[in-house]
Amino acid sequence: MTQTATVAFIGRASQAPPELQGFINFRAGLAKRDLRGDEPVAVLRLGALDCYHVVLLEGNPSLAAIEKELSGINAVLDRKARASLGKELGGGKGK
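-> structure tokens emitted (95 positions)
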């Protein structure tokens, strides 16, 4: 079943709400990255559950790459999340 991904947080890692910090740190660990705190991140909420997917935005990934990553976990961006990520990535509608 495909889950809809909505934005829980977009911004600097250090500015994320405390309840999302663990998810961000876990994702950074999987990527073998040490966070300084100023890295841009997006935390996406999957469906209506407290299930989150963190996207590290450093390196300016394309919107298509993020959507491909989400397809691997049976998730799709909702319209508002797609627009927000596109704006954050600097392309309006994404790259």
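The chain has a mean pLDDT of 92.
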